[in-house]
Write a structure and sequence with these properties.
By secondary structure, the chain is α+β, with helices and mostly antiparallel strands. The protein has four domains: about 60 residues, no CATH class; about 90 residues, PDZ domain (Pdz3 Domain, Roll); about 190 residues, 2-enoyl-CoA Hydratase, Chain A, domain 1; about 40 residues, no CATH class. The protein contains eleven helices and 19 strands. The strands form four sheets. Strands 3, 4, 5, 6, 7 and 8 form a six-stranded antiparallel beta sheet that branches. A six-stranded mixed beta sheet has the order 10-11-12-15-16-19, with helices on both faces. α9 runs parallel beside α10. The two termini are about 35 Å apart.
């Protein structure tokens, strides 16, 4: 069994005003909560005016849900109301299977912003990138929609197309057509790099993550036949997920110490989550890859391994989401609210909210390719150049002017598809050599 025991249980919700009114007299309540009661009466008055006088007949349930949504979205981008359908989708999401485009989004200045595409999903294959802004859905602007409304419009029947208008830095807005599909996520993928470095890709922190990581470590050790030099843990474009899975993954690579701390309002409900004894990676070098699409739970793992000096963090600065949301089922129906209840802090006591994790080594993503001179001119092409004393030279190249020959760019066989990964593998090997030198 995994040495870390995750946090379990759902938070209970309290209906605003209901318990207070039932347990106290009207006089006591008005004296104790005068502003709250006044504002609740104002809300009731507004609803009554809408119900009686709005030009079209309205559904009171929709009005109440809209009011709840407005309260929550006014707090921060991550607090929201979850009607029954959304609550069910969220539960499926954490289990690792759901329908849609395969894209993690947030709301920024009224626009839908891509946190990251999810590996091997329609959005990923269509070229959607972290940091893209979605400005239109099927030609309709997203401004004026809530995040949930925009997400709902992106959902649909499997096999149906949707056109996203994308605004990307440095480019003119462009349209991308994506076909909706059932998203079946593998939280963990792994393979050997150069026969001696274990590559582990975690795309999301769901209920599948820790079992997948355990399997990856076991198989990589078997495949290397004792030659394993270390690991690359790839958290790029990982939007986060379950807190307990982030703690468990960090614990996998740590021998001991605090993984993360969480604190609520005014420091209440403060908790320190610690790693148990035993490093499942056997102390081998670890390089963690992050980028601007690495958020929340990904940043917990990167921050914990960085602060404990257990891993080298490489890539570019992470997203900067340093808050924890609690899911609170409501006392009626199957609805819930998702509300920010805590901030989390790395083992050194730092909050990464809006600042992100800074890599130890900044490596921008790039492509490495062979660059040749535009013109192919050699010594033998020069007028009156010296002859080879062995008499071995191409016929007709000396004593004449050779017209420069333009070089084509068709041959790109030396291209490296993932420059950041290439550097991470090299770093693992370098650290392994350094460790072995000191051990011997």
């Amino acid at each position: 069994m995994k040495k870390f025991l995750g946090v379990t249980g759902w938070a209970a919700a309290l209906a605003l005003g209901g318990t207070i009114l039932m347990s106290n007299s009207s006089a006591q309540t008005e004296e104790t909560y005068p502003d709250t009661l006044t504002n609740l009466r104002m809300l009731g008055d507004v609803m009554e005016h809408i119900r009686e006088n709005y030009v079209d007949e309205v559904n009171e349930k929709d009005l109440i849900e809209a009011a709840i949504q407005g309260m929550l979205t006014s707090l921060d981008p991550h607090s929201t109301f979850l009607p029954p359908s959304d609550f069910e989708d969220m539960q499926q999401d954490t289990k690792g299977e759901f329908g849609g485009l395969g894209i993690e989004v947030t709301m920024e200045d009224g626009w839908v912003k891509v946190v990251s595409p999810i590996d091997d999903t329609p959005a990923y294959k269509a070229g959607i990138e972290a940091g893209d802004y979605i400005t239109h859905l099927d030609g309709e602007p997203v401004q004026g929609l809530t995040l949930d409304q925009a997400v709902e419009r992106m959902r649909g029947m499997v096999g149906e197309d949707i056109v996203l208008t994308i605004a990307r830095k440095g480019q003119e807005p462009f349209d991308v057509t994506i076909t909706r599909d059932t998203i079946k996520m593998r939280a963990v993928r792994y393979r050997m790099e150069d026969d001696d470095v274990g590559y582990i890709r975690i795309s999301r922190f769901s209920e599948q993550t820790q079992p997948g990581l355990d399997k990856a470590l076991k198989r990589l050790k078997e495949e290397s036949e004792g030659e394993l030099k270390g690991y690359v843990l790839d958290l790029r474009n990982n939007p986060g997920g379950l807190l307990n899975q982030a703690i468990s993954v960090s614990d996998t690579f740590l021998e001991r110490g605090i993984v993360v701390s969480t604190r609520g309002r005014d420091g209440r409900d403060a908790q320190d989550f610690r790693a148990g004894a035993g490093d499942d990676a056997d102390g081998l070098p670890v390089v963690v890859l992050i980028n601007g699409g690495s958020a929340s739970a990904s940043e917990i793992v990167a921050g914990a391994l960085q602060d404990h000096g257990r891993a080298i963090i490489m890539g570019t600065k992470s997203f900067g989401k340093g808050s924890v949301q609690s899911i609170m089922p409501l006392s009626y129906g199957d609805a819930a609210i998702k509300m920010t209840t805590q901030r989390y802090y790395t083992p050194s006591g730092d909050s990464i909210q809006a600042t992100g994790i800074e890599p130890d080594i900044i490596v921008e993503q790039a492509r490495l390719e062979t660059v040749e001179s535009r013109f192919r001119t050699q010594e033998s092409d020069l007028r009156n150049s010296l002859k080879n004393p062995d008499g071995e030279e191409e016929e007709g190249v000396n004593d004449k002017t050779t017209e420069p020959e333009e070089e084509t760019a068709e041959d790109n066989s030396n291209e490296i598809q993932d420059y950041q990964l290439e550097q991470a593998v090299r770093m693992v090997k370098g650290v392994s050599i350094f460790q072995n030198m000191h051990e011997n």
